Amino acid sequence: MSKFGVGGAHPGGIDLTKEILKTEEINKTSRILDVGCGTGQTAAYLAEQYGAKVTGMDINPIMVEKAKNRMRKYQLPVEIIQGSIEKFPVKDGNFDFIISESVLSFVNKPTALKEIFRLLKSGGRFIANELTTNKRLSPTSEEEVKQFYGLDSVLMEKDWITLLEQTDFKNIKIRMQKQSMLQYNTNSEFQYSEYIEPELYAVMHEHFNIIVKYEDVLGYRIFSCTK
Ligand SMILES: C[S@@+](CC[C@H](N)C(=O)[O-])C[C@H]1O[C@@H](n2cnc3c(N)ncnc32)[C@H](O)[C@@H]1O
């Protein structure tokens, strides 16, 4: 994905991001962290639209470079940091909002959620758009999905809620139940790398095959909660 430089690499894309953010009380004094910011499309939008103090972080160096290029190109004062949300060396209570869009599935979820909780101010908000299964996958299907995406688990809505509760988040709300991954992103953006290995096209193709194959089962949810 980093070689293709997919912007808005989450279900619903930037259009859904804008809609969700409208319901939050963001202003120019807000400090916001975009976890797993990818090429920085959401982080750039937050800085442009709200004048907020935005930090984007991502583990992938190619994503980090592309996000930095975006901020330079549009002269946006967004800080982009390479790191892992499983251990992100920034002081406690630094952010009013933390957003993660299709990131938590790829990490150790309890560890990352604890880190997000630590980084939020008291009363701060966490908003997530994450892969969620609409029903339990059969063991073979679950293995296929986990193997392909490199996930340690594929969660149902109630599993996410349990994890958020265990992390001590309050006021947990869920929007957009039973959304299909096929409504993925109608407004895609690409920042291609100069060289893309031919096998990566096959991987992208396989990704779309899996989404079609599990259309009824694989979905996503928008979670919001408060520290
Ligand atoms: C599906 S992409 C989503 C990117 C971006 N949020 C978006 O919507 O366009 C997942 C992103 O999570 C990043 N990521 C994976 N593991 C991570 C970790 N431990 N810490 C931070 N970012 C991570 C990947 O590098 C990738 O950019």
Sum up the structure in keywords.
single chain, 227 residues, alpha/beta, Rossmann fold, seven-stranded mixed sheet, binds S-adenosylmethionine
Q: Mind explaining what this structure looks like?
A:
Helices cover 36% and strands 25% of the residues. The chain has 227 residues and is an alpha/beta fold. It has one domain: Rossmann fold. Strands 3-2-1-4-5-7-6 form a 7-stranded mixed beta sheet, with helices on both faces. The mean pLDDT is 91. The structure holds S-adenosylmethionine (SAM). S-adenosylmethionine binds next to loops.
Outline the fold blueprint:
Blueprint: H1 13-22, E1 31-35, H2 41-50, E2 53-58, H3 61-73, E3 79-82, E4 95-101, H4 109-119, E5 120-133, H5 139-149, H6 157-166, E6 170-180, H7 198-213, E7 218-226
Parallel strand pairs: 1-2, 1-4, 2-3, 4-5
Antiparallel strand pairs: 5-7, 6-7
Residues 1, 7-10, 36-38, 41, 58-60, 63, 84-86, 101-103, 106-107 line the site of S-adenosylmethionine (SAM).
Keywords: Methyltransferase, Transferase
Pathway: Lipid metabolism; Phospholipid metabolism
Protein name: Methyltransferase
Strand residue content? 15-25%
Secondary structure category:
alpha/beta
Cα-based radius of gyration, to the nearest Å: 17 Å
Q: Treating each run of at least 4 consecutive H or I residues as one helix, how many helices?
A: 7
What is the spatial order of strands in the main beta sheet? 3-2-1-4-5-7-6
Note the run of SSEs as H and E: HEHEHEEHEHHEHE
What's the architecture in CATH terms?
3-Layer(aba) Sandwich
Mean pLDDT: 91
Shape: globular
* Percent in helix: 25-40%
User: What small molecules accompany the polymer chains?
Assistant: S-adenosylmethionine
The CATH class is identified as: Alpha Beta
CATH H level: which superfamily? Vaccinia Virus protein VP39
- Taken together, the total number of domains comes to 1
Low-confidence spans: none
Largest sheet: 7 strands, mixed
Q: Might you state the CATH topology name?
A: Rossmann fold
- Taking the alpha carbons of the first and last residues, their distance comes to 32 Å
Secondary structure: number of strands: 7
Pathway: Lipid metabolism; Phospholipid metabolism
InterPro entries: Methyltransf_11, SAM-dependent_MTases_sf
GO molecular function: S-adenosylmethionine-dependent methyltransferase activity
Protein name: Methyltransferase
